[in-house]
Amino acid sequence: MNAGAGLPLALLAAFSAALVAQAPTDIPRIWDDAALADWATPVAGLNVRPSHYSSAEYYSVPGDNLRTYPIYHPGSEPAGYWEELNKKRPEPLVDASKIRSREDWIAAGERAFREVDNLWSRTDDPALIAQARDPRSFEGVFRLPDGTSFGPRWVVTAEGVRLSSPACSACHFTVREDGTVAVATPKGPRPPGSPQLIPRGIGVVAAGAPLAMQRFYAGDPRPTATWRMWTVPWAPDERIESRRDASDRELQELVGGDPGVFNRPHGSPFYATKIPDLQILRYSRYVDATGTHRLRGPEDAGRYAAFITGADPMDFGPHRILTDAQRRVRFRYADEVLYAIGMYLMSLEPPKNPNPAAADVLARGEQIFRREGCVNCHVPPTYTSGRLTLAQDWQPPTNHPNRDDIATVSVGTDPGLALKTRKGTGFYKIPSLRGVWYRPRLLHDASVTSLEEMFDVARLSPDYEPKGWNPPGVTRRAVPGHTFGLSLNAEDRSALLAFVRSL
């Protein structure tokens, strides 16, 4: 029956207006002292939480909320486009005055995730802007179906047009076979012979490029800035400490070539962290492979976006990583931008496998999944318990603040990231298996490239050659941990993997 049947039109209209009025249009305060108090997980080597800027420090600078615009390939740029850009006044990327519902927030967040730019990369350098307007920069470069390039963006500021790069979609994207780009997806290798992604000469504006590092680590030469990203004062790694005065060639050797990882601050080039699949974020209680911060809702997702883009004092108990000049809030995104991104990310759902195995095979695979105990950690329907497993040979203190989420088991994963970096909480979070069928990299460090490799007992051998990420200078090593299912016969293993790929 029609829910509105029998209601006068005027009353029905008033009822609909009331529902709209109740839609969540307020902008939550992202950097909230009470929420920050128990947000971070203590660092295992210190048993203290990393420090955060206070809300007073954070809100002492204005929030940035600027719309960005695409860069077109030569011959595809609409007539008068560049001239119109230079006449424009700044516009908000997220206009909260137009948001009336949850769906509006999600739509605004999707756009913001795609288009928000990295302030540390924003530049008015005439030479770089000219490079981005030079047809020669685009020869043989990837081109989207609408004629735009992937990556760098124009930003209209109060001081004029600036060149910049994406903040979120620069890492979280996949180039599809049809030439489009999907965002918030796990990043994997592009097919051999694929065109260059970023127009020539302007990769310098990318996040993590020398320009951005020079600005965030103000006053540091590049080797010192790189050392500051990864040094662990309470557990120094000589491989990092010895490169404080490294040459550009030596620094490049640390970066690595696997597209599935990105050596962000607090990590290590020797203990990698995979670029995550954000389409399963909603199934997590924590962010980062080592569960560095709680994930209690879209505010925490936005809060983490703020944290990794600059709102990070890098203080760990008595250890201060940054200089006095570097350790201050110099930039922040407006709360409406961060909340919209959080709402978008928490709305995502991984796509289902369009070609699952036959029903009888899936039924057999599910039986094995339950028989082998996989269901104890990867609990349906999210296929994760959301809990934290112990790094090998580590036990948390009995009064650990996250104790209710700790599973008192270790699956034997290499403990380097969880114990020897500034991301080292002593834990690895249990990931969701939803959407695992399409992920190009598995395990926290992207060592494994397929479920077949994951369930191959050969990976436990020190002579094994992993098909995914390897530490600098390493080609042969064991990929330890998660030995569940390695003893299955071929038929059972095939059924189990078919079931997992259907999730």
Please provide a written account of the structure.
The relative contact order is 0.13. The protein is globular, with a radius of gyration of 24 Å. The chain has helices at residues 9-21, 33-37, 55-58, 81-87, 102-115, 126-131, 210-216, 222-230, 238-241, 248-255, 298-308, 335-345, 359-371, 416-420, 451-454, 490-501, and strands spanning 63-64, 68-72, 148-157, 160-164, 173-175, 181-183, 286-287, 293-294, 315-316, 319-320, 332-333, 388-390, 406-407, 427-429. It has a domain at 63-255. The chain has 16 helices and 14 strands. A hairpin with a 5-residue loop joins strand 5 and strand 6 (181-183). The protein starts with 8 loop residues before the first helix and ends with a helix. The longest helix is centred in the first third of the chain and has 14 residues, at 102-115. 26% of the residues lie in helices and 9% in strands. The chain has 503 residues and is α+β, with helices and mostly antiparallel strands. The strands form 6 sheets. A 3-stranded antiparallel beta sheet has the order 2-3-4, with no helix packed on it. Strands 13-12-14 form a 3-stranded mixed beta sheet, with no helix packed on it.
> C-alpha Rg, in Å?
24 Å
What's the total count of β strands? Answer: 14
Distance between the termini: 35 Å
Mean pLDDT: 91
- Share of helical residues: 25-40%
Sequence stretches where pLDDT stays below 50 over 5 or more residues:
1-23
* Largest sheet strand order: 2-3-4
Shape annotation: globular
What amount of the residues lies in strands? 5-15%
Order of helices and strands: HHHEEHHHEEEEHHHHEEHEEEHHEEHEHH
- Give the count of helical stretches: 16
Q: Which class best fits the helix and strand makeup?
A: alpha+beta
Biggest beta-sheet profile? 3 strands, antiparallel
